[in-house]
């Protein structure tokens, strides 16, 4: 019987054995004797010890396989998570400030406009000048009429037209076939339509109001002399509106018609805007607002600090007959 067969028989009997049980034909040298002796002594144990060894080996294999499976699941999970994050980042790349798409944030609150694709329009915080009284170095837009004032308004209410594409009009829900084009001699090509940017029209309208402020005075103030208060009030309102129009910088565009009553193309001011829901704002305001009568009845508590207004402010508003407490506080208010 060969050595391997003899070993197999011993394992099957599962009992202790000695070197004497092996056939000598497989013992060819002293080294082989020693190797076989070590091998046989390893298994010269009782039945219980062999079973425990086999169980430990099975447990070790099971734990190893479980660890490998767990590691595989973790690798798969991390791969899927990485793939998801990469895909989300690519899909949202255009939505990230500084990403690929120019003026992404403005496009979310505006109608489609070629201006938003043509130039970068940064967003910035701008504290509006809402003071009532005139100051030194007052803005040109609050000053009394003069050639310099008219020139300043003319610059920001520019009425120079710009070229629009056919698609620009389509984006506004218009039929381009009804709109006027620039002749090719203007250098814009054969399909350039006459257009303008709406913010400049809005400022133009405000300037017209500035130039016609006294039209309705007799109706609204029949028994009141127009003095410094009304002049300042009108100037304040016009300038506040101007700053808001310039701050918003509406870049929606509009086209022009050819009409039979004049030689020049006529603007179509009936254009789409992306607007905030004003009625929703008004409804919420009415829910939380304090009635004006209730507000008007409020008086300053004795322990509250008071701002001492200028002599000029008290004169214009006729708040006091004397001005013993004249001060410079509140210059940014009035």
Helix percentage: 40-55%
Number of helices: 13
- The total count of strands amounts to 5
Strand order of the largest sheet: 1-2-3
**Beta content:** under 5%
Mean pLDDT: 79
Order of helices and strands: HHHHHHEHEHHHEEEHHH
What would you report as the Rg, rounded to the nearest angstrom? 45 Å
Shape: flat
Q: Outline the biggest β-sheet.
A: 3 strands, antiparallel
Q: Uncertain spans, ≥5 residues at pLDDT below 50?
A: 19-27
Structural class based on helices, strands and sheet pairing: mainly alpha
Number of domains: 4
- Straight-line distance between termini: 118 Å
Description:
The chain is flat and about 110 Å long. It folds into four domains: 3-42, no CATH class; 47-91; 106-275, no CATH class; 277-334, no CATH class. The chain has 13 helices and five strands. It has 334 residues and is mainly alpha-helical. The strands form two sheets. A three-stranded antiparallel β-sheet has the order 1-2-3. The chain has a two-stranded antiparallel sheet with strand order 4-5. A hairpin with an 8-residue loop joins strand 4 (256-257) and strand 5. Helices cover 47% and strands 4% of the residues. Keywords: Membrane, Transmembrane, Transmembrane helix. The chain crosses the membrane at residues 73-93. Belongs to the ustYa family. This is Tat pathway signal sequence. It holds the Pfam family UstYa.
